[in-house]
What we know:
The chain has eight helices and eight strands; from the N terminus they run ααββββββαββααααα. The protein has helices spanning 4-11, 18-27, 83-88, 109-118, 120-146, 149-160, 169-176, 180-189; strands spanning 29-33, 38-40, 48-54, 57-62, 68-74, 79-80, 95-98, 102-108. It has a domain at 4-119: Jelly Rolls. Helix 4 (109-118) packs across helix 5 (120-146) and helix 7 (169-176) crosses helix 8. This is Crp/Fnr family transcriptional regulator.
Amino acid sequence: xxxxxxxxxxxxxxxxxxxxxxxxxxxxxxxxxxxxxxxxxxxxxxxxxxxxxxxxxxxxxxxxxxxxxxxxxxxxxxxxxxxxxxxxxxxxxxxxxxxxxxxxxxxxxxxxxxxxxxxxxxxxxxxxxxxxxxxxxxxxxxxxxxxxxxxxxxxxxxxxxxxxxxxxxxxxxxxxxxxxxxxxxxxxxxxx
Length: 192
């Protein structure tokens, strides 16, 4: 199991002993997903949180009209799940799907709670990354209600410039809240 990215991610915020790393490893599972395969289905339960070690994953909501709205992309070194479902252990409202062939480390809610009691600084790590994610979602909501599509795309491009070529254009359009046709026309007009 390739855990180098995981340790880098954790050690950006906390220090771990070798015995703590061994304990964390004992709680992790590894799963591989083919492109298009679901990690979580809306209506099911997000029993685990996923750390992407290879590939890319997206979370999206399907509205009553059947339109998909991309909520989050996750690449190597990022965490993803239906967070509400994972925390409450209730029905998921998001689909979480592999964009590419992907490998993830899985951590169940029960195992995470156990790790919190055995490695208290791990709770700090998840608090910090959850706070950062909340800030990012808040910024995204503000961008959506206050910026033009072009401004939102510039922000997207800046945030995902190392990953953008790995994301299908129609999914970028969905993330930005525009149609694929509008996105294509807008992108052609951009001066970069």
